[in-house]
Amino acid sequence: MHQFPSPSRRHVLRLAGAAGLTTAAAVLAPQASAAGARTTITDLGPAVVQFSLMSGLLIGDTVYIGSRNLSPARVIGFHLPTRSVTSRTDLSAGSTVSALAADPTGRYLYAGVLSKKKGDPNLFRWDLTRTDEAAVPLGLTGSETDIRDLTVAPDGKVYSVGGLPGVPPALWEYDPATGALTSLGVPDPKATLARAVVATGSTVFFGAGSVLSGGGDASRASLFAYDRAAKTFTSIVPRECEADPSLRELAVAGDKLVIGTSASGSPAKLAVMDLDDYSSYTVVTAGGNMVKTMAVEATSVYFTDETGAHVYSLTTGEITRVDAGGLDLGEVWGVDHRDGTLVVVSAYGFVAEIDLAARTSVVTDLGAAGAPAGPQLGMGIAAGGGYVYTGGTGTIARHDVRTGEVVKFRVPGEAKDADVVDGVLYTGQYNAQGIWSYDPAGKRLPHQVASFAAEQNRPLDTCWDPYHRLLLVGVQSDTEGGGSLWTYDPGNGRSAIHVNPVDERQLIRAVATRQGVAFLGGDNLQGQGPRATVVAFDPRRGRELWRLDLDQKGGIAAMTVLGRNLYGLSRRGEFFVIDLPRRRVVHTADLKDISPGFAAMVTNRGTVYGVSDTTLFRFDRKTFAASTVVSGINGAWYSGPHLNHDEHGLLYTLRGTNLVRIDDRH
Length: 666
Hints:
Elements: E1 12-13, E2 26-27, E3 31-34, E4 37-46, E5 49-50, E6 53-59, E7 62-67, E8 74-79, E9 84-90, E10 96-102, E11 108-114, E12 123-127, E13 136-139, E14 147-152, E15 158-162, E16 172-175, E17 180-183, E18 193-199, E19 203-209, E20 222-227, E21 232-235, E22 246-253, E23 256-262, E24 269-274, E25 277-285, E26 292-297, E27 300-305, E28 308-313, E29 319-321, E30 332-338, E31 341-346, E32 350-355, E33 360-365, E34 374-375, E35 381-384, E36 387-391, E37 393-400, E38 406-421, E39 424-430, E40 434-438, E41 447-450, E42 458-465, E43 470-476, E44 483-488, E45 495-499, E46 507-514, E47 517-523, E48 533-538, E49 543-549, E50 556-562, E51 565-570, E52 574-579, E53 584-590, E54 599-604, E55 607-612, E56 616-619, E57 626-630, E58 644-645, E59 651-655, E60 658-665
């Protein structure tokens, strides 16, 4: 049975001697960052080191697995008979390998990536007969820098889907005979993301919806059949699936198309449609929040959701749970069937071989099998009680500031932001995992202490309210638009959720507090409606006190309070200060030179600090002027920078992929 790691000595990750990394804190020379100020930066080593993954595909005896949030992005081959990593290729672009597909001969593996850099290729091909050679870049799918799914038709042509918020997703075709990468059109202009594609000899099926940036007039679940000969799209989405936010997965099973959806407020659905008659189909309730990672074997369709693995019988129409012998599969990014065994690739960093008849599992940790670990892009950060915590994918890394030891705890999803209160860690956990807690003084591992509606899925900012002794969490709803405020009282374990306290379009990207009043910073990812609204909110009674709509081009990125003033930054570098008793803006400035996008802010030692993707800076309390503390901080964050401090007034953030401690005296 698979066990979670515990903070015992044998589970301590010692980085010394591993790939040239060291646990010894490197104290850099103090810097004069402003007149009369001295800043000491201590390098604490890589924040999170692991082999993180986001895709898996079985070809013959080898499972090919794509990395997540590692640089360079890489694909490894895990050989099942020997349970070891036997091959690897590094990609020349991309942060995450999000999709894998094999050509009909099994010789070529195609890989699609997520990329944070515009203009780089996002489609690659690896010759599996020459695994010592690097994968070859094939091109870029227009302005859609992210590929979410791939399929290869029987004639070898490759089809991809993906997109970015604000860029309607197209169906793309790669022809290996000519090398041409061509857009075949946008079947659903109101879709925000396409995540499912599968092809037959005559038809390509395109599944999309509003997995990201939903709400407003964004599409719900959409499914189109593209006739390869006629070059036309036809909408074929089952009526019963139309209300779900998105099509999540597609597979072909003989003469059937198997369809899986993402849910919101109700269970996801699984549909089976006749390929010869799209009006003939059956729909069943799957039970979880999404149907994903399908594998077809004879008359069975295996699929996973957030609760585990399941099997759908094409003959009886019944769904049963796969007995994995008590194994927690976590988030699954690959599932295949082989000789009575279900092969599962888990975001926890392991491959599980589930014997379906014996109901037993064999688990192989990929790191122990030779997978190349590396420093990962960071998520949230928190400090206190002698520890610094950094969030990764499926992991929280605990750094002991006294000894340099690092302990990694396995947790589902990602700790998007976190705070330490009285020595106890509290995290806002994506995706739809609520609030988690960990007390290093106790024996219990990190665990969930509060759960919320699944559609309120993406926590963005945590803030401790000392007046009410509440943890406040600002949240985005990816599928519905808007967002919510979560509250959690550690004293009695009670939690509450307040949906759309700003409005139906604005999510809550920033939360600050003063004398028991929570200040909620709005951001709007849609093309219409207000943005950058600040709402003063009573978190205990759950009611609005007042609001200010700011005249800004960008939504609010970060906020904090010092004295009577609320400091804030927009996602376009617009700085503002609100006098809270007077409820008016008293200062603005353009700071896009040091804060061009996402940002984080904290109040520490009587000073407001901010960090962007490039710079750590502070504000003068009297003039509000910004001055640089550390230039070129260039933190390697996955979804925007974070900044936090401990009870001693020491700041913590990332410089590159390394955790750094900053002692700023001025």
